[in-house]
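Supplementary Note 2. Why include the ligand at all?

Several targets in our set were suspected to adopt different conformations when bound, so apo predictions alone were not considered sufficient. For every target with a known small-molecule partner we therefore ran a joint prediction. The input for zinc ion is given below.
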Amino acid sequence: MQAIHVQNSLTRQKELFKPIEEGYVGLYVCGPTVYSDVHLGNCRTFVSFDVIYRYLRFAGYKVRYIRNITDVGHLEGDADSDAEDKISKKARLEKLEPMEVVQHYTLGFHDMMQLFNTLPPSIEPRATGHIIEQIEMIDQILANGYAYEANGSVYFDTPKYIAEGKPYGTLSGRVVEDLLQESRTNLKNQDEKRSPSDFALWIKADERHLMRWPSKWSIGFPGWHLECSAMSRKYLGAEFDIHGGGNDLKFPHHENEIAQNVGACSHGGARYWLHTNMLLMNGRKMSKSDGNTITPLQLLTGESEHVSKGFSPMVIRFFILQAHYSSTLDLTDDGLIAAEKGYHRLMEAQRNLLALSTTATSGALDVEIEDGISKLYEHMNDDFNTPRTLAALFDLSSKINGLAGGQIGLDKIGAAVLDRLKTEFVSFTQEVLGLLPTESAGGNSAVLEGLMSLILDIRKQARNDKNWNTADKIRDTLAELDVEVKDAKDGSTWTIK
Ligand code: AMP
Ligand code: ZN
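The joint prediction is reproduced in token form.
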């Protein structure tokens, strides 16, 4: 098994990763709140954890990867009381069922994840499917004396928890005294809370809230932080290996998750907390309010003032992996153009490599190549360092291209080393980094072009023969596949919608 080191946000140290159970990893990542289209910042976080998941599997672990869907409880402005639930609000404004909103954006999220070639998690639990587990957890926290009921809502009692020396503020680095003093703008609910730092576990629903469940405290809904505590415990246990999310979630979301876990059952949940950094655009935080934003679709099509052209999903994935997950990543047109060149160079080297063969049993380059392969493992073992892994792949690429171009003789590499290089290069590129050649990652590849040209020829022939059934069947089937055929005088053209 590889010795993997991870930067643990909880201890602020790079630590050797030791799973609770040898050979198994429990990984929980906070998923999206499905009230709007997934944005590129979300995609960055999920692509980063996809690589972590992929590498753990590649390293031989059996991984149970849980990535939830937040479909209730996340309030406007990330408040924890008296604001409106994001999904409920969207449903009310658009006259939809909340579950219609949830379904629509969950499907959109899945499409995006598939486009960027992220593997589906082992379980994708929804907050609304785990209300009973959340109510049970509140019962336990109340029974242990770390929560109180006020006017049908239930709040976590932070001063009591802190007074007992429990670890509040450790993850986020917040000073407990500051937290206790912090004033909230929301005075009405502050009245209900004993301390401004307390947070809601259960919220009594007012008439605006469309999603509500009966409980012994009130008809209401769970606080946002509770779902991740309840679902991680249900599927991974009270103590598990890795919890991930964007670093904007460290406080209050993850800090409160730990408090709830300890309050319910004395365990803080994950041993290792991994946080991704934020995606910026042109040096500033990507933000809808000041127009400094681009949707994944705009980036793919190039229909945005921020980019000069469209970029393929694999180029965007490559761009994301060029930065370490814990560094900020600045999206710029120049950066994307450079990533496009880099991605194509990598794919070209891969193609060149697969066409190589040698009759030598050993060669002068063997040791250097073996060293280069070890570097791939070394960098991924070092907190999943994708930029360094890519750099090591490029070092190998220059040797591969030298061999392919004749500048380096094929007698310089032994057959066994060449075989290993083929396996490892393709494994790291495709299996670990998830970077597929464009032909298998969608797009108008030569094969696709050839097949479409054949299909359109058959359709043209059918129309000439007045065989309308066949012609219509081809058009309708293509339409079902989102391929739009346009007929013109000089032939038919096609586009993928
Ligand atoms: P949300 O849908 O807002 O709950 O976020 C889903 C995930 O995306 C969380 O792990 C967030 O931390 C992460 N996230 C949100 N904004 C960004 C961003 N600009 N860059 C990277 N990750 C982000
Ligand atoms: Zn969460």
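The chain has three domains: 5-276, 281-432, 445-496. The chain has a mean pLDDT of 91. Comparable summaries for the other entries are listed in the accompanying table.
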